[in-house]
Amino acid sequence: MRSIDSKLPPLVLTPLKMAGIRDRRAAFRLLFSALARGAEAGEGAAERYLWRLPGEGEVGEDREAATADLAADPLGLHLVIVQGFGAQCFEPMIRALEDAIPRLARIGVRVSYAPVTAFGSVRQNAGLIARGVRELALAPGERLVLLGYSKGAADALEALVRFPDLAARTAALLSLAGAVNGSPLAELVPDWIEELVALLPGLRCDLGDRQGLEDLRPAARLRAMAGFPLPPPVPLYALVAFAPYEEISGPLQPFWRRLAQIDPRNDGQLLWYDQIPPHSTLLAYLRGDHLAVGMPITERLPALASAFDRNAFPRTLVIETALRLIAMELAARDRRAAGR
Predict the structure, then answer these.
(1) pLDDT tens digit string along 130-170?
(2) pTM, whole model, 2 decimals?
(3) Would 239 be classed as within a structural domain?
C-alpha cells in the first residue's frame, strides 16, 4: 500500500470547461476528415483514430474549419520539435514525427529539432531549447511553433516560462502526448535504465544532468505547474493520446497495465488527464499508444515492426490538422489586433 504523499500541491479533478480549457475537437475532426479524404487514411479515418467523447459537439458546428481552404497559401510556420525522454540516444536512426517532414514542407512548414539531452532535467533542457531557438533564422513572416512530445512538452513549457525572449518569439506551443503532469511510471522506473540505454550498441547518448526521470515524477511536475503563470505566455494546444490494451504495442503493454490500475485511459506511458496544459486548447483525443502518435518505428526501424505491432498511425495528418488550426487562430488574432 502506498503512503500518502504530503509533497503534492492541492489538486482538483474537474471537467474541461471548469478548468479553463477551450475545446476545439469538433473543428479538428472536421478538418482531419477533409484531409484524410485526399490521403491514404481514407474515409472513416476520424472515427478510427479520434475518440469521440461527450461534449465534443457535432462536426459541422465550427464554421471556420468547415470553410477552410486546403489549397490556400503556405502556412508560413517554423516547427521546432522537442523530443522526449531518452529520444536523443536514437538519433539519427529515428526522430519524432520525421515521417511528417516532407508533407509539412509542401504546405509551408519548416521543421527543426531542439538540441535537448536524453536524460537531462527539465531545467537543463529548457536552457538548451532557448539557446537553440535563438540561433534559428526565421524567414520573413515566418511564425515559430514549438511542439513538445512526451517529456518534451514539460521541457518546452519550462523554457517559455524561464526565458521571456523565447516566449516573445514563439507564436504557440503544441503538446503531443505531453508529460505535462508527469507520469506515475516515473516512480517505478529504475535509475539504471539510463545506463542500459546508453550502453546499447550504436547509441550515442548525451546523458545531461540525469535528473530527467526525477522531473517526470508527478509530485515534481505538479509542483512546477502550480507556479505556471496564467494566462500562459503563449497560446497552448494539446493532442492527448490513449488506447485500449489490445491497441497498445507489446513493449508498452506492461506499462499500460500498471497505469490502468489508476485509469485505463492511458497511452502506455501517460494518463489521459496528465497530458493537457492549463488554460490550453484541446484539439483531439487520439486513439493510439504513446509511441504510435509520435514515433515512426515501423518505417525507420523495420526490424522492430513485429514488436511494435500497433505503431501504424496517421501522424502526418494529425500534425498537419493541428498546425492548420493553429495557423487559422494566429491569423484571426492578427486580424483582431489590426482592427479588421
Answers:
(1) 999 999 999 999 999 999 999 999 999 999 999 999 999 99
(2) 0.94
(3) yes
What's the CA gap between 152 and 158, in Å, rounded? 10
- Which of 304, 283, 319, 248 lies closest to 90, judged by CA? 304
C-alpha distances in angstroms, 76 versus 70, 73, 81, 138, 324?
A: 14, 8, 16, 10, 10
- The CATH number covering residue 187 comes to 3.40.50.1820
- For the record, the C-alpha cell of 141 comes out as 513572416
**pLDDT at residue number 207:** 86
At position 54, the amino acid (one-letter code) is P
Q: Using one digit for the tens of pLDDT, what is the confidence trace for 305-326?
A: 899 999 999 999 999 999 999 9
Per-residue exposure over 60-83, b if at least 16 CB sit within 10 Å of its own CB, e if not: eebeebeebeeeeeebbbbbbbbb
Structural domain span for residue 268: 20-55+72-337
**For the chain, how far is it from start to end, CA to CA, in angstroms?**
60
Q: Are 69 and 31 a contacting pair, CB within 8 Å?
A: no
313 in a domain, yes or no?
Answer: yes
